[in-house]
Amino acid sequence: MAGLRQPFNASQFLNGMLAFIKNSPTPYHASQSLCALLDEQGFRRLSETEEWHLQEGDQCYVTRNGTSVIAFRFGSNSKPTHGMRLVGAHLDSPCLKLNPKANFEKHGYRIANVEVYGSSLLRTWFDRDLAIAGRIFVRNADGTIRNVLVDSKAPVAVIPSIAIHLERQANKIQEIDSQVHINPVLLNHSGDCETLPQQLLNSADGQVEVEDILGFDLRFYDSNPPNLIGSEGEKSNSIELISDCSNQYISSARIDNLLSCYAGVQALIDASDDNFCVLVASDHEEVGSVSDSGAQGRFLLQVLERIGALDPKVIRNSAMLSADGAHGLHPNYPENHNKQHRPVLNKGPVIKVNSNQRYATSDETEAVIRGLCTGMNIPVQVFVSRNDQPCGTTIGPLVASEIGIRTVDVGVAQFAMHSIRELAGCDDAVYFLKLLKAFYDSDSVSLVD
Ligand SMILES: [Zn+2]
């Protein structure tokens, strides 16, 4: 079993991840960033509306709706008896999304009218310098319709907290009314200024005459860029991997789940040419995955069918690693965790187990991952949620049940999942890359017929 391609530069990997997240404020941008990495490595872009002429050794990718991406590489072992190795992640994150009727006036301010996307930790959105990005459909002067990706980069709005002097109960548990309290206050609030979508378009697309804006999907995000923080301190046992990185933590928005997307694409790029490897990065996981491009839609199924991977013999010799964030033990809230299953940041990837199938891990797939970790000297942790606390989920159970592929849920431990700013460990990101690469390169992933 081969390790990471040498020389491995952890600092370059971690800084590459930061740039990837920074350039991916929305699923559209994340998809674009992912495709750019695949293009650089010679993956061929396919269109769902055309015939595909595939050959042995091909490496290709296909996108749907400008968000979800499926990339694959046929290896020299692309036989039904060897199956495929599939890594799945999601590229959407909870956020505040601009409504079609985008703004209104209130007490002399212009307010952005937003809808909450996914289960955002809303109180973390207050007092941030919010930028906005997304996709706009426009009609050109000649009548044609096209879409434009836009990103203000600079802050355009804030959601101010109420001062402690005006709300003395603010430090008690304070209810946030998601209809009233979290509409961002736009910083350009002069009465006759153009709407926000039009302003974004003007700065992104000034060259071409646009007749009309026909539709948009615009999302606020924290303009504070991702950062590597924390001094090296005590050496961890993965120090041979990160000796060129002096930081311990990744502080960023959208660690859930762009960290997994980036580690997944780098593992695919770095995987040996032997196995049939697939990467799927899905949209709409944070809202249940039910969409034409989500994991509960037909996108993956249809692509696998077209590339000949839906043969039952292939499927039963295959496995999927569902890569998504895990809850690291919060030292101030230890009682919120199941006592024996509390992963700690920078202590290794986390296998997520739930017997009610909120995670798809089975005893068999857990054994496969533990076997890989032992072989690669990767520490491994396990997460089980408390019986009295509803468990989150991932795309793992959806894909496992739809396709019949044995699946394991594994991820990197993090603090503050679904906050506007999350925190994960540098060592864990490197361990995770190493595990994903070992998974792609593994000789066998089935232990039971
Ligand atoms: Zn997630």
Describe the protein.
The chain is globular and about 70 Å long. The chain has 2 domains: 10-93 and 225-441, 3-Layer(aba) Sandwich (Aminopeptidase), CATH 3.40.630.10; 95-126 and 129-222, Aminopeptidase i, Domain 2 (Roll). The chain has a 9-stranded mixed beta sheet, sandwiched between helices. Strands 6-5-11-7-8 form a 5-stranded antiparallel beta sheet. The longest helix has 16 residues, at 255-270. Helices cover 24% and strands 26% of the residues. It has 10 helices and 21 strands. The two termini are 23 Å apart. Strand 7 (130-140) and strand 8 form a beta hairpin. By secondary structure, the protein is an alpha/beta fold. Helix 8 crosses helix 10 (426-441). It binds zinc ion. Residues 90, 256-257, 324-325 line the site of zinc ion (ZN). The site of zinc ion (ZN) has 5 residues, from helix 5.
Distance separating the two termini? 23 Å
Bound molecules: zinc ion
- The fourth-level CATH homologous superfamily of the largest domain is Zn peptidases
What is the CATH C-level name of the largest domain?
Answer: Alpha Beta
Structural class: alpha/beta
Give the secondary structure arrangement, pairings included:
Elements: H1 10-22, H2 27-40, E1 44-46, E2 59-64, E3 68-73, E4 84-90, E5 95-106, E6 109-117, E7 130-140, E8 145-151, E9 157-158, E10 185-186, H3 196-204, E11 210-222, E12 227-229, H4 239-242, E13 249-252, H5 255-270, E14 276-282, H6 299-306, H7 312-316, E15 319-323, E16 326-327, E17 350-352, H8 363-376, E18 381-383, H9 396-403, E19 406-411, E20 413-415, E21 422-425, H10 426-441
Parallel strand pairs: 1-2, 4-14, 4-15, 15-19, 16-20, 17-18
Antiparallel strand pairs: 2-3, 3-14, 5-6, 5-11, 7-8, 7-11, 9-10, 12-13, 13-21, 17-19, 20-21
Helix pairs in contact: 2-5, 5-10, 8-10
Zinc ion binds at residues 90, 256-257, 324-325.
